[in-house]
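Sample intake sheet
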Amino acid sequence: MIEFRNIVKSFDGKTVLHGINGSFAPGRTNLIIGTSGTGKSVLLKCMVGLLQPDEGSVMYDGRNFTTANRNLQRDIRREIGMLFQGAALFDSQTVEQNVMFPLNVLTEMPKDEKLDRVNFVLERVGLENVNSKMPSEISGGMKKRVGIARAIVNNSKYLYCDEPNSGLDPMTAILIDNLIKEITEEYAITTVVVTHDMNSVMEIGDYIIYMYQGQKLWEGDSSEILATSVPELKEFIYSNKLVQALKDGEKS
């Protein structure tokens, strides 16, 4: 369980997060949605400790990450996996080396156990026998799957995905969405996905927070979102559908 209470963050006197509250439960895909500049990424950075909120706290299973000492923060960070927007693989390292990186940094596991773990997670994301390939030799969708494997290789309890479908074609995006949801449910991970993709919202949105100008305007699940009475959210949904329709028209 991840809980965040009254998160306030300002830059140069401008408040970008206005007292955000919420909680993300394990075993479900929790989404933070909204247009660019609404504070989604700032909230995520506050949650993982890349930014310190001006007010409020972030709790991981009852542990206050915001006020924790260095040792406790380090222990919590070891339980966090991160899938970055562009996969963020090391270009000079093989797939195997990329996935093994967190184990090298965070554990003292013997080399053979590390390799067993790497092979296990690569198989879980459908990438058997690609250990020796370089990132430049695999597709964008495969890079995202390698990123997922790296994010869970250390038995992560919490998984953050920043725009996981960015740059992917619609079919590959669906595969990545389904993989994130399957892994979340299978391992009871507390997963947080930052996205503006309505396809992802409808496919995997177990719990959704909609943000607008630094405020949480709506929360619910994918079965409720289309019936919203929030004008800003309605516009967000319509704009997403219009953009997708135009893209589909260009491909036909």
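Comment: The mean pLDDT is 88. Residues 88-156 form one domain.
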